[in-house]
Design a protein that fits this description.
Oligomer: single chain
Strand content: under 5%
Order of helices and strands: HHHHHHHH
Number of helices: 8
Number of strands: 0
Distance between the termini: 99 Å
Largest sheet: none
Radius of gyration: 29 Å
Structural class: mainly alpha
Length: 231
Amino acid sequence: METDTLAMAQEIDFSFMALFLRATFTVKLVMIMLIIASFWSWAIIIQKSINFRKARGESSEFDHAFWSGEPLDELYDQIAGDPQGASQKIFSAGMLEWRRSHRQDGGLIAGAQARIDRSMDVAIAKESEALTHGLSFLATVGATAPFVGLFGTVWGIKNAFEEIAIQQSTNLAVVAPGIAEALLATALGLLAAIPAVVFYNKLSAESDRIVSGYEGFADEFSTILSRQLDS
């Protein structure tokens, strides 16, 4: 009898697709949600990694041009029409307000420094929002996916016990498929959650470093303009 049971269990297909197809509608829905969340998370991770690398390159390139000794008015005239990258946009925002703060007679309108700083702060805030856009989804997946998977597992085990009660049998061939399908939901939940958590922390820290660099540049630029305002 035990040999027959083991033989029946060995004939059961435990591949991912077979487990998915045998699962109940609720468990299938949970699995589909987790698979979509995982793919979406990886799409965000890849896109953000590319964007951050591009942002660092643009920032480094502009810093080189900014500190090359070229007059700031000439540098602004070159990029004012179509600033590329966050550093250029922050610089353009400051220079635009700097020029607007001059009266026709060449004098400065009161409060120029505060307006310049505020303009650059607004530009930094926009770039920071663009950098962090989508990271909240990774945080949500990391926090909820294991519990969604656990829900699928609990529901699957419930169905497995119902199947045992219906067939009045606890042999391996009856129990194993239902338990395997249920545990697959938990595995998918962890598969979605672990990369989401790891890369959320990594990308958030990297975003903070990039924004900190923007803020440092804005402070240095503001200091340069402040000297001209005081001279």
